[in-house]
Design brief:
Among the domains are: 156 residues, Rossmann fold; 102 residues, ANL, C-terminal domain (GMP Synthetase, Chain A, domain 3). It is built from 17 helices and 25 strands. The strands form six sheets. It has a seven-stranded mixed sheet, sandwiched between helices. A hairpin with a 5-residue loop joins β23 and β24. α12 packs across α13. The two termini are 46 Å apart. This is Long-chain fatty acid--CoA ligase.
């Protein structure tokens, strides 16, 4: 086997990018400390017009750490963050890490059942929760180890005048207030009140080490069962350093638009840890809304936009329609799903900048490959290995055997950003991480002569829709309990810029009525995230199965596509 250090430099390697980077033996928290010290007055966050400097972020994080310590949080304890993008999310993330505790990120729109599984699995004892998600977390609480729930009023991160406007007795104010706030029981404390009353954590309190666990990021991996990817301080620090080397970003110069959610691995690194390392100004939005993005762009023009392709397409379309100026964006980084050529061409036409594709997994913190940040980028290719990252292409059935150059095989990755394994899942860790540290990705690729890696197919059966992963078995398991449904198979079908959409192929009980798409979606809404809901329903007389009784999803998908055509 080729060792990581023996791999030759790809022929297409970009000028000015080091093949390897030095990752210092320090915790990720040193990144915030350095940025706050060297760029104290630079605006760190612009949240819907309210600005916070890097020194203020560091001060609030120190106060937040004191609050969490008073709640009993210590080194190694897990703290759940159930928050949309906001200034508080940034502060709470750094506060948890300062104590040597572990951040556990959660989608704040998850159902109580989805939250219960993740909270119980991580063993989180404290949760910092957006007010609208508080009822769902409290509903799940008895199934978890949670001892404290702290509520976050999203409107408290707004400018004073904007907060005041929310109290006006007009429909627009009521709608905005309803979108930001939610009912909270009297015995649930509020984050902002606690932080305001706290003194900063004393500097003498020991912090984490580079080898400590920093983050549990839940992912389906290759099986669909949500499990926590264990990311160490050095994993996250390495990926931020790799990103800076690849982009050649100069500290204190970039304006990064944080439209990707921090609770997603892509958004967490590009819009939080990497952005902190380069002392960027983060324009933070609680959710993606082209109108809000364009309004913010007038106020604070962006230079760098990490996004998934549907976001780029919608934003470019909105700019074309309104005449908004997006030419300040030099780069957009596209990931999580394939970038359609039409979307890339539209974005580059509107911005006169470049859109750069990358590839990664939660298990690689998450970026592992990227296209050059130049006109040499290659639309449709995953790109080249990041600095200090090596790849191998192996036989899909035997990961110890490399395939011949140019042949297709499973992509393996090695580098300092590769995770430490899955939380409390040694068997799945052993399957994913080979004994020599190489990570199995489950993706079939081929490497071209100049070193570019091109995706051929997915070994996984997951569906990627709008950048989110949907695992068929989870949707199927829920639908099997629906009255009138005898059997079900869930597959993906092409859906333009969304990547794929979820299709449910069902066999109905004899005489069943009322099982239509609306009913199926209503049934699924009680347990599944919105992006996982079926967009089409196909009724079949039986599902094709193998000799051992396994549903042949490939055949189901072919049938679905034929019926759609």
């Amino acid at each position: 086997m080729t060792s990581p250090t023996d791999a030759p430099l790809p022929a297409a390697w970009p000028d000015g990018v080091p093949r390897d980077v030095d990752v210092p033996d320090e915790p990720l928290t040193a990144t915030l400390e350095r940025t706050a010290r060297e760029h104290p007055d630079r605006i760190a966050v612009d949240f819907l017009g309210r600005t916070t400097t890097w020194s203020e972020i560091a001060d609030q994080a120190a106060r937040g750490a004191a609050v969490l310590r008073d709640l009993g949080v210590g080194p190694g304890d897990r703290v759940a963050l159930v928050l949309p993008n906001c200034t508080t999310h940034l502060v709470a993330f750094w506060a948890v890490l300062r104590l040597g505790a572990v951040v556990v990120e959660h989608n704040p729109t998850y159902t109580a059942d989805e939250l219960a599984h993740q909270l119980a699995d991580s063993g989180a004892t404290v949760a910092v929760v957006w007010e609208q998600a508080v009822p769902r977390v409290l509903e799940a609480r008895d199934r978890t180890a949670l001892q404290h729930v702290v509520a976050v009023d999203l409107s408290a991160d707004l400018r004073a005048v904007a907060r005041l406007a929310l109290s006006l007795p007009v429909p627009s104010a009521r709608r905005t207030r309803a979108a930001m706030r939610g009912p909270v029981p009297a015995d649930v404390p509020h984050w902002h009140r606690l932080v305001r009353a706290a003194r900063p954590l004393d500097a003498s309190v020991p912090g984490p080490a580079s080898g400590d666990v920093a983050l549990l990021q839940y992912t389906g991996g290759t099986t669909g069962t949500p499990k926590g990817a264990v990311l160490l301080h050095r994993n996250l620090l390495a990926n931020a350093i790799q990103g800076q080397a690849w982009t050649k970003a100069r500290p204190g110069t970039e304006v990064v638009y944080a439209v990707l959610p921090f609770f997603h691995a892509f958004g967490l690194t590009l819009c939080l840890t990497y952005a902190t390392r380069i002392a960027a100004t983060l324009v933070v939005l609680p959710s993606f809304d082209p109108v809000r993005v364009l309004a913010a762009q007038k106020r604070r023009p962006g230079t760098f936009l990490p996004a998934v392709p549907p976001m780029l397409d919608r934003l470019a379309a909105a700019a074309e329609e309104s005449g908004a100026d997006l030419t300040s964006f030099r780069y957009a980084i596209s990931g999580a799903m394939a970038l359609p050529r039409a979307t890339a061409e539209r974005w580059e036409r509107v911005t006169q900048g470049l859109v750069i594709e990358g590839y990664g997994m939660t298990e690689t913190s998450p970026v592992a490959l990227g296209n050059p940040m130049t006109a040499d980028r290659r639309p449709g290719a995953l790109g080249l290995p990041f600095p200090s990252t090596r790849v191998r292409v192996v036989d899909q059935e035997d990961p110890t055997r490399e395939v011949a150059p140019g042949e297709r095989g499973e992509l393996l990755i090695s580098g300092p950003q590769v995770f430490a394994g899955y939380w409390n899942r040694p068997e799945e860790t052993a399957h994913q991480l080979l004994p020599d540290g190489w990570l199995r990705t489950g993706d079939v690729v081929q490497v071209e002569e100049d070193g570019f890696v091109v995706l051929v197919d997915r070994m996984k059966e997951m569906i990627v829709t709008g950048g989110f992963k949907v695992y068929p078995s989870q949707v199927e398991d829920h639908l099997r309990g629906m009255p009138g449904v005898q059997d079900v198979a869930v597959v993906g079908e092409p859906a333009g810029d969304l990547g794929e959409s979820v299709v449910a192929a069902v066999v109905l009980d004899e005489g069943a009525t009322g099982v239509d798409l609306a009913a199926v979606r209503a049934w699924c809404e009680t347990r599944l995230a919105r992006y996982a809901l079926p967009r089409r329903l196909v009724v079949m007389t039986e599902l094709p199965r193998s000799q051992v009784g396994k549903v042949l999803r490939r055949v189901v998908r072919e049938t679905v596509l034929r019926r759609h055509g």
